[in-house]
Specification:
Three copies of one chain form a homotrimer. Chain A is an alpha/beta fold. Chain A is flat. Chains A and C meet through strand 22, strand 23, strand 41 and helix 4 of A and strand 4, helix 3, strand 39 and helix 4 of C.
Chain lengths: 343, 343, 343
């Protein structure tokens, strides 16, 4: 429960209503009641707010909200994100080490750190202040974890991994497993031992069951503010830039580079040593070939090899037409291709 | 060990042989011995049964099985599924709470529930009758799990999640992690806190290492009877309909809707707020764009943007021909496209 | 710390320098110091070695290294892999059973086996000599694990699974969960119970969070020396051949066969009962349709249905051109296709 004035201060907006109005939570306009703060991110939302029972609204300067109490901001959705964090902070586990947790010799915990049931913290690891280690999480030997970072239940850090401050790793994340590198030999592929490490910067967010491999030599890096969705794969020696976004099933192969603020859509991929330039956007399922470099800030590229979004849309029109117009053929002719060996 | 008569009753078929014949298990015709019940799902299987040593056979009315004892049914493979469950029920762990399990205050367990080694059940959670919680599974605070549901080892339910009755969640499933939503800000992307929840209906099946995110506001839903394969991603505020099937690597983005009995093939995807209509089938790797709606019950659509299967097959014939017929060019001309910045 | 002579013996190379020269570790030429052994896998590396401070170098016969101490080999990268394993062996946990581990009745451990904190080994399971079971790993009842195999933290083996010798399973791997098979019924899909098992051969490597399902009947097989990356899916009754390589997000559907030394690139897929012939390479995201067979040893095939790499490159040239040259159209004409139902 906070007052409208407190909320305006927390989100950096202009108070436009009774300072002492008490609000309980943020809600989308469709669901907002008298104690709720709605937010109007666009015209459609604004119309919904007009017909809603919301007690107050986050909106832009000049938005018409029928005299309703408001906090005026530049970006209502960004303000809503901040207001949710302010009104409904995520509960944090109580500080302290659960009686069932196993701490190796020399493990050090910062002030206010919390280690959950059955968590294992390896020898010589250092956890910062207010770090939370969830149930069954495993922090390998010699890891370092920065202040205020949350490791959810079942997170695994292999030995020697570094995680910065204010990170959030969701359940099932694996950081520092061996990279996938092999040399062919007469008796079969021989694994190249992976003796490098992984360093995550500050404010990194990693989604559930995502995997980030350790480097062959040197370091796999995820820079400050990068955000990874669930089920993403980051291979050995890859480098993910500041504020980059990697959506679900995105894959970054060995040695590939995602520069600052670049985006990989869902299922998008970089082949080994490819480079996605700063601010460039690979759309869903787009991919760069090995050593290919693509840099086009703010623009969306589709498919593999990638082409600009507009060109891709034109191409898909032709593709759909050719599927529609091609003469129908017997089942024979439509069969899948077979290799010469088989035919 | 059951009699042919008991089996006929269990699968809802017509007894066509000695009622007292004792059978041990179901087997495919290639492997069936004298104590086994084979099943003939098609002509090929029927021929195999003829040459097999099977003690009895599940087949259709009118199928010629050379006088062999039989149970006559409409769908032999469906009957076989029921007969396997009847003859070879999956072992269930003994009821009771393992001495190493950690139960939070106010956690309630139904009759016959089983909580395995090192499992953690959070404060205020309610487990129904005969629920099994596998080793190291974590049920967050305030969760509800319906009767006869099985949570396999290492399943994670974040706080506040609801799971219906008779569900099966395989190892490594994560339900209720934060959705992936961000607002751009000068200093980088700001996470939109995710304060909604997840509700799974009854008879839902979730494969190993699949992730289902909690909603931003409101609820991410998976309705009764939906079946999800391994390594599937269901994002915040998505809705999966009754009896829907999602194959491995299928992805359903934020707010997208899979209507009842719709199917996503492997690697198929819905972009944010897309809708796949009831009974419509997205083939392997087919995808809908944001807000796109596709409804065509019983039909298969391929690729992205999707086209009907027959049109896609025609298109691929042209594609393969153009690859074959295009004049060969020097390596230069075949190079990957580069952005203007780079050239 | 080993001598040049010891290293030459370990990698099977020719000593070309002072036998007693002591070296500490292997490093790429850019990072190598006076106590390091650099390796020159190609011309570019060789030039880097020339300007490096490396104490010695792994290189080919005839490579010019300016009189620097060397070990001469046929394949410097393969030799480097062996030298890393020799100079910097991965630390192994101490033998013995952690006081918190839970061993079921009849579980047997070989000499030198190590069972970590909170690991669970089911009744009747057999672990070979020097097997390591990481923290929180779960070995179900009746499993068998061969000598020198490493199960990393949080690995799950469902009951009855067999793993060979010298395997490495990374964190979060799930072996033996139920396959994804259903029969349609009026009330919705009915799961076909999965009563088969999984057998992994010797020297198999499985990446983090990869899933390998048990067979419906019979056995899902991964043969000796096969290497699987992170987040791979192997479905029920699939068969993976000797020395096969499966990259991240590769998917092998039910009953499909990957023959010996075949390769699935990232996101590549086999549909049910498809066969990828020995030594054949499916490039990134290439896929075979159900029951399709492709056999073309040593050749790369792209896309789905697949075509040879050279043909695919020709096709992409035409595709990029058609996107560039097609007349621009209004937004209307570029809209995504909708089904007849919706229009």
């Amino acid at each position: 429960m906070k007052t409208l004035e407190q909320i305006a201060a927390a989100v950096g907006g202009r108070l436009d209503g009774p300072p002492g109005l008490v609000l309980r939570r943020v809600a989308p306009p469709e669901e907002a009641g008298a104690e709720d703060l709605a937010f109007a991110k666009d015209e459609r939302h604004l119309a919904l707010v007009a017909g809603s029972r919301a007690g107050a609204v986050l909106c832009r300067e000049g938005d018409e909200v029928g005299g309703r109490p408001a906090v005026r901001v530049e970006n209502p959705r960004l303000a809503a994100a901040r207001a949710v964090a302010f009104l409904s902070p995520e509960p944090t586990p109580p500080p302290g080490v659960h009686r069932t947790a196993v701490l190796g010799p020399g493990a050090r915990l910062g002030e206010g750190a919390s280690v959950g049931p059955y968590a294992v913290v390896g020898a010589g690891s250092t956890l910062g202040a207010r770090v939370t280690v969830g149930a069954h999480a495993v922090v390998g030997e010699g890891c370092r974890v920065g202040d205020d970072t949350r490791l959810d239940p079942h997170v695994i850090l292999y030995p020697g991994v570094t995680v910065g401050a204010r990170c959030r790793l969701h359940a099932g994340v694996v950081v520092g497993a061996e990279g996938f590198g092999f040399e062919p030999d007469a008796a079969g592929p021989v694994g190249f031992p992976q003796r490098g490490t992984v360093v995550l910067g500050d404010d990194v967010r990693v989604g559930a069951n995502t995997t980030i491999d350790r480097a062959t030599f040197g370091t796999t890096r995820v820079a400050d503010g990068a955000k990874l969705d669930n089920l993403v794969q980051v291979a050995h020696n890859a480098s993910i830039g500041r504020g980059a976004l990697l959506c679900a099933f995105a894959g970054v192969a060995g040695g590939a580079v995602v520069e600052d603020r670049a985006v990989l859509g869902p299922q998008a991929a970089l082949s080994p040593d490819a480079v996605l330039g700063a601010g460039t956007i690979l759309g869903p399922r787009a991919a760069l070939a090995s050593r290919q470099r693509l840099s086009n800030p703010g623009k969306v590229w589709m498919d593999a090899p990638p082409m600009p979004l507009a060109a891709w849309k034109r191409w898909t029109v032709g593709r759909l037409r050719s599927g529609r117009d091609a003469p129908s053929r017997g089942r024979q002719d439509l069969s899948m291709p077979r290799s010469r060996k088989d035919t």
